[in-house]
Write a structure and sequence with these properties.
Layout (H helix, E strand, L loop, with lengths): L5 E2 L7 E3 L1 H18 L13 E13 L9 E11 L15 E12 L10 E4 L9 E4 L4 H12 L2 E3 L2 E5 L9 E3 L6 E6 L3 E6 L1 E2 L5 H12 L9 E5 L9 E8 L5 E2 H10 L5 H21 L3 E2 L2 H21 L7 H15 L11 E2 L11 E3 L5 E3 L10 H4 L6 H16 L6 H19 L7 H22 L5 H10 L5
Antiparallel strand pairs: 1-2, 2-3, 3-4, 4-5, 5-7, 5-13, 6-7, 8-9, 9-14, 10-11, 11-12, 12-15, 14-15, 16-19, 17-18, 19-20
Helix pairs in contact: 3-5, 4-9, 5-10, 6-7, 6-11, 7-11, 9-10, 9-11, 11-12
């Protein structure tokens, strides 16, 4: 890439590309991205045709060489345009057009070594990288190490801003985690883990904002951010875009989902673990309420909350016809919530308090350390929801409902199905939560039932679209929540 076309913005070998060169680069990559992006687990636009790409920002973290074995590293923020017409797998309801922004880290080489073959995106056919091979950079230890070096040295490079809270030692060997979901993660030296956010939005991402707030509060249930980087200005908008967060890697820890499944396979109860996890959740909620503003939800806000849940139920029932027989029974949960907010349902006041919460809490978002302590991770919230919604204060019972649904998932994943196991875990979790807060989530039955119903409806749509074999799991909860016998 021509040095004359780029604007150097910090000491070292990196360079920020001018808007014109960035647009030319993205245009040259578009044929490859059309094929490669929809295959990525973290791409949120599956099922809808891509109609165009545009460059938000482009930075050479390591300029691509003209020749030789040394790789280049490109950091791209690309806006992906998709038309509103849904395909046959999407719900038959109006779908607005999207222009989501994605973070891409691409390696550039003249030829790709065999050990990086699985990371291949393709050979560029035109533009400044004609004839060069581009590939997913995080698979390349050399480039993953270069990214950590940027985090070790705070500063700016074009639109990118690197910051850190503590010193980071050199020489940490990178290892890309294989279990990819909505983001990508690299472990460095078994000491730190770097989460790369793929679909990015203007504004502070909760996965950085909330752990920083909890660290200031002295909460030890959440790993404290070590370093992070963002994009600011230069076409990215007025608000920063959180791009990546480096946190301590809790080596030897086991995630709650795997631990629950192993306990089930061994015939164990898991109630002690569930009770301890309830206490850990409550401690995080208490710390968040102390660190960040809380609000009160009046009757109008509560009615709006119930109305939004009811709307999601209607849309999902159109998309998944097997839900239709249960709609009337499920809607009673949302009607009861609206009544409790107006005082008609005898609510005890829990519904009126809202605060910052995890937003997507389940067993897979928890870790138990070798000494038996529980930690909560991944505070990004549900990636499919707008960032403004994920940052909005909500009743803490939303997290509780998510975890209760997770116990059901674990129980249904084991043969034979053990609903009693799930019920005991659910009761123990709420008991542990009440021990720490003095408030039993069951005390406001209308609020808890509404959130659990809303979560089950979300699960039905997700499984129908992505994992049809799992659809019986949320459907069993749907029958229970709708008042039908299994």
């Amino acid at each position: 890439m021509s040095k004359a076309a780029s604007t150097r913005s910090s000491p070292g070998s990196g360079a920020a590309l001018s808007p014109a060169v960035a647009e030319e680069l993205v245009d040259s990559l578009a044929p490859l991205l059309h094929t490669w992006l929809p295959r990525q687990r973290w791409f949120a636009g599956k099922g809808r045709p891509i109609t165009g790409f545009s460059a938000v920002a482009a930075t050479e973290l390591m300029p691509p060489p003209v020749s030789g074995p040394v790789p280049g590293l490109l950091h791209l923020l690309v806006r992906v345009e998709q038309r509103s017409t849904p395909d046959l797998d999407a719900p038959p309801v109006p779908v607005p057009p999207t222009d989501d922004c994605y973070q891409l880290l691409l390696g550039v080489r003249s030829a790709l070594p065999p050990h990086l073959a699985s990371a291949r995106v393709g050979v560029v056919g035109k533009g400044p990288l004609t004839g060069r091979v581009v590939y997913e950079a995080l698979h390349d230890p050399h480039l993953a190490d270069l990214l950590l070096e940027r985090l070790r040295s705070p500063g700016a490079l074009g639109p990118l801003r690197f910051d850190r809270a503590v010193e980071i030692p050199p020489g940490l060997v990178p290892r890309l985690l294989g279990a990819e979901q909505s983001n990508s993660s690299v472990v460095y030296g078994e000491e730190y883990i770097l989460k790369i956010l793929r679909r990015v939005f203007p504004g502070a991402n909760p996965d950085l904002e909330l752990p920083l707030a909890l660290a200031r509060q002295g909460c030890r249930r959440v790993p404290s951010p070590v370093a992070w980087f963002e994009a600011v200005g230069d076409g990215t908008g007025e608000e920063p875009l959180t791009l990546g967060v480096l946190q301590p890697y809790l080596q030897g820890s086991e995630d709650g989902w795997q631990l629950a499944l192993r306990t089930l396979a061994d015939g164990g109860a898991f109630t002690d673990e569930a009770r301890a996890l309830g206490r850990a959740t409550a401690e995080v909620h208490l710390a968040l309420a102390a660190a960040l503003p809380t609000v009160s939800l009046g009757p109008r806000q509560t009615a709006h909350l119930a109305e939004a849940m009811s709307g999601r139920l209607d849309a999902t029932a159109q998309a998944v016809p097997s839900l239709l027989p249960y709609v009337a029974g499920l809607r009673t949960a949302f009607d009861a919530l609206a009544s409790s907010g107006s005082g008609e349902g005898g609510g005890n006041g829990l519904v009126t308090r809202a605060q910052r919460v995890h937003g997507d809490l389940h067993l897979g978002q928890t870790l138990r350390t070798p000494d038996g302590e529980w930690s909560l991770i991944d505070f990004e919230g549900e990636p499919a929801r707008p960032l403004t919604e994920r940052r909005r204060p909500q009743p803490a019972v939303r997290d509780v409902a998510g975890m209760l649904r997770s116990f059901d998932y674990a129980a249904r994943s084991h043969e034979p199905w053990s609903p009693d196991w799930a019920e005991r875990c659910r009761a123990a979790y709420c008991d542990g939560y009440a021990q720490a807060t003095g408030i039993d989530p069951h005390e406001d039955a209308a609020l808890l039932r509404a959130y659990e119903t809303d979560k089950a409806v979300y699960e039905v749509l997700y499984e129908a679209r992505n994992r049809p074999d799992w659809l019986p799991v949320p459907m069993a909860a749907i029958r229970r929540l709708a008042g039908r016998r299994p």
